[in-house]
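Changelog note: in this version the structure field was regenerated for every chain. One regenerated record is shown below for reference.
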Amino acid sequence: MGCDIDIFLEIKKPAEDWKPYEDLTDQLYPDERNYETWGFLFGVRTDDYEGLFVSRGWPEDNAHKELEEKWDGDPYNTPDWHSYSYMTLDEAEKIKWPEELQESYFCIFCEYVWPLLKGYSKDEHRMLVRFNS
């Protein structure tokens, strides 16, 4: 059975609550099925890496509370959500990527695409993830 990732980007402007970041087209999200990258970042689906951001849960102040449940009762959704975690853009910018993962789209997204969203603002950015196996 395969494993998929759900990714939710959030933004927080000074003195405001976290909000979903909705200005990014779905085609730019790094949702490729890459177990090595997921293992390196989140400790999911590999024994090769310990994971940098393993099962941290989602922050209490997240903007996606309605999605935090493991199963929403929808018969078309499976109740197999697990390994909820997150990372901030500041954390992502400090990642030392192993050479074998530097061509993964997740690496390219974290190093080049996501930082461009921030621009010169003082807004905070974070990525929430969960996996479905």
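Spot check on this record: Residues 4-59+77-132 form one domain. The chain has three helices and four strands.
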